[in-house]
Design brief:
Layout (H helix, E strand, L loop, with lengths): L4 E7 L3 E8 L4 E8 L2 E2 L7 E2 L1 H18 L7 E8 L5 E3 L9 E2 L7 H19 L8 H10 L3 H5 L2 E3 L1 H10 L3 E3 H5 L4 E2 L4 E2 L1 H7 L8 E3 L4 E2 L4 H7 L7 E6 H9 L6 E6 L3 E8 L10 E4 L4 E8 L3 H10 L6 H6 L12 E3 L17 E3 L7 H27 L4 E5 L6 H11 L3 E3 L5 H13 L23 H21 L4
Helix pairs in contact: 2-3, 3-7, 9-14, 10-12, 12-13, 13-15
């Protein structure tokens, strides 16, 4: 008897991952293909959409081959993708531009002008703090700079939409990816006339908006052959990687917060209805017609630790480097680190922000700086979490995924700063599992999104040290005061 398996295809910023699961969430096989980012000018970050589509083909095919999976064993494939990319497309579906991704900062001037001119009204409509990451800002840049691909474009698509267009000849976009364009009205769940007009385009140039459970059929024969699948296999459009990472780790109930910490990071919580923060600090993106995710992304996660490791010419492993922090008590003996070395999204929403060490003395050594960086990353996430409380209340349970979650030292710091138990899945493929589960919901193989909680292999929780928590609350008050004061210097 053949197996019943499901695949999650996750198109991230740094790689494409194809992960095959049992229907209970156990990983059967996985394949990861690294994506190349291009930097044609300072502050510009682009990726090749055709290269990414080809990497997706290779990842799917390799994941199937690694476990000798037969075509008929894959029940369905769910899609996940990073947010905020935009590609100019001609009438035949060919890219006229590279994909401008979230990290691209070319529209900094336009974003600042939009914020000054109409920022809070825009935020009230789309739930997205005005920032260069937004495709809305990028489209305004294209319009104002006479960007040739923009003027010649028939359509504007994200990377996931482009893959779906190539594989199924359909122009569709799910609620969460539509939210991430900055052109979507979070209350009406439709393209917003005023925002589309600001971008200088027409709604007909955007894709049809569908729920995350939209089933895609009619896979192109040539594509199916390359993938090693049949043309009949149903794909499901899924959602953005943030929503699906929360789903895939089980952070879907009231009070359950998910932290994703890789090169960058984010903290997110599901909520009912469209909710905004008081001071433009958090985003609110749709997932289904009723369920939204509220949160904040940071540019500075593991990249800050990697920067310090390289700066200090540390030759040991990443684990050994983070373990240096265990030699120092909470608070790094007075050093505070403000981790804005890569500009910042939440909570500052300022691409010109810069990192800082405060409180250094001649007695501080390497281990103090390692601890200070780990704590600074955590304080930044905690600051975003405090902004979330305005809309959704205090967190009750913390889930963590991403590469930094492999550090036991950092997990303990998170538990101590938040004063909550921290839960980590035994698999780090939360977004892929969330995409796969969404596909199972769409096909009626499982009854609900909530049911995923029974199908996540979870390790033992990290327990907070309450004495350390009290210490960190005192330190955080100083961190928060300095962070707010630093804003005026950027």
């Amino acid at each position: 008897m053949s197996r019943e398996l499901v695949m999650g295809l996750d198109i991230g910023t740094t790689s494409v991952k194809a992960v095959v699961f049992t229907l209970k969430g156990k990983v059967v096989s996985e394949s990861e293909k690294l994506i190349t980012s291009y930097y044609p000018k300072p502050g510009w970050v682009e990726q090749d959409p055709d290269e990414i589509v080809q990497l997706a083909v290779l990842a799917v095919r390799d994941a199937l081959g690694l476990a000798n999976i037969e075509k008929n064993e894959i029940v369905t494939i769910g899609l996940s993708a990073a947010m905020h990319s935009i590609i100019c497309i001609d009438g035949d579906g060919n890219p006229l531009s590279k994909a401008l991704i979230w990290a691209d900062g070319r529209s900094s001037e336009q974003a600042a002008h939009l914020m000054e001119e109409d920022g809070m009204n825009i935020y009230a409509k789309n739930g997205m703090p005005t920032h260069p990451m937004s495709p809305l800002s990028k489209l305004v840049w294209m319009k104002e700079t006479e960007y040739e691909p923009y003027h010649n474009a028939q359509y504007f698509l994200s990377i996931k939409e482009y893959l779906v267009f190539k594989w199924f000849n359909q122009r569709v976009i799910d609620f969460s990816m539509a939210s991430a364009t900055g052109l979507f009205n979070g209350k009406t769940l439709k393209w917003d006339d005023e925002l589309v007009e600001k971008a200088g385009i027409k709604k007909e140039q955007l894709s049809n908006i569908v729920p995350p459970t939209k089933v895609l059929t009619g896979l192109e024969k040539a594509v199916a052959d390359k993938l090693g699948l049949t043309t009949e296999i149903p794909f499901v459009i899924g959602a953005a990687d943030g929503q699906l990472a929360n789903l895939g780790i089980g952070a879907i109930s009231k009070g359950e917060v998910a932290i994703t910490a890789g090169t960058s990071g984010a903290i997110r919580q599901f909520t009912k209805g469209f909710k905004l923060s008081e001071n433009h600090e958090t985003f609110c993106y749709a997932f289904t017609e009723d369920d939204y995710i509220i949160g904040g992304p940071t540019n500075n996660g593991g990249i800050a630790l990697q920067w310090l490791k390289e700066l200090l010419h540390y030759q040991g492993s990443f684990d050994d480097f983070t373990n240096e922090a265990e030699r120092v008590t909470p608070g790094a003996e007075g050093i505070l680190f403000f981790p804005y070395i890569n500009g910042e999204r939440a909570p500052l929403w300022n691409q010109h922000a810069r990192g800082n060490f405060f409180g250094m003395t001649v007695t501080h050594k390497q281990e103090h700086f390692v601890r200070a960086v780990l704590e600074g990353i955590t304080f930044n996430l905690y600051q975003i979490a405090k902004a979330l409380e305005y809309s959704v209340g205090e967190p009750e349970k913390i889930y963590i995924n991403g590469g930094l979650s492999k550090s036991k030292v950092w997990l303990q710091i998170v538990a101590d700063v938040f004063g909550k138990e921290v839960y980590v899945s035994e698999t780090h493929h939360s977004a892929a599992w969330g995409a796969a589960w969404t596909a199972l919901v769409a096909l009626g193989k499982v009854t609900s999104f909530d049911e995923i909680k029974k199908n996540i292999p979870m390790g033992s929780p990290v327990i907070p040290d309450q004495n350390n928590h009290e210490t960190y609350l005192e330190i955080y008050r100083k961190y928060d005061m300095f962070a707010h004061d630093l804003k005026k210097y950027f």
